[in-house]
Amino acid sequence: MSNTTENNAAPQRHMLLVAKSAFAAAPYRQMQQLADLVAALPGVAGASFGFTEQGTPSLREALGSLRAAGASDVLILPLMLPIEPSFTAWLTKSLRRWQAEDGVAWPQVRIAQGLADSPLLAALMAGLVEGAQAAAPVPPAERLVPEGSLVPAQKRRVLVCQGGPCNAAGADLIWGHLRNHQDRQKLRTTGDGTMSCKSTCLGPCNLAPVIQVYPEGTYYGGVTEAAIDRIVAEHLLGGRVVEAFAYEPTGRKQTLRAVAPAESAKT
């Protein structure tokens, strides 16, 4: 099922609404409602949505669908609040990398200002405050009953660095790609079982974006979506370290190695 709403009366520009993540049906419905609203605006040919972190379609998948459909002008509308100062920088860098990796002509892509920069935000907030006056009060807390927890049986852990240099290199996109793999391939219950989490700085900042895979403790640097594909298939499911992206603790400073396209996509 497509998440795109078309407005054939004014084929001028396609809007791509971007949020961080969605896990349940309700957020997807909300995004579709927003896309429908935007698609009805004058001068808009169509509107769709994508996610920078976990959710389907990912931002890259959404852009790929627009490219395949022949879109020539795409305006990305970030819906997140707040937006980190590095957002536009790492998104621009990732867009350039994706274009280079695809090796085909892309539509013109632009990034709109965030919601916080809109002069209409004050009126929107005023409307939300006015509508909230009739909200039901939160009932008093009842006595809490302790709940038990299962200790995870998964043997593998993937840490995705969220330090400054990794964020600037697009770590959120890498996290989202990994989490979508985890959901689609049921990695928690496949093979040895895998759990993943975001981490503070993992150390080798100049190798960003960085992830670390346990129980081996393997560091992977310069991680791309293609690298995640291989790490999932070969390391998490196959038990073999992907040497093309792996970096051993040598006691000396290391720089990113160039990875040939064929080696990057090797399976």
From TrEMBL:
Domain of life (superkingdom): Bacteria
Record bears the keyword Lyase? yes
What is the protein name given in its UniProt record?
(2Fe-2S) ferredoxin
In its UniProt record, a GO molecular function of this protein is: lyase activity
Arranged from A to Z, the UniProt key words for this protein are: Lyase, Metal-binding
- What Pfam families does this protein map onto? 2Fe-2S_thioredx, CbiX
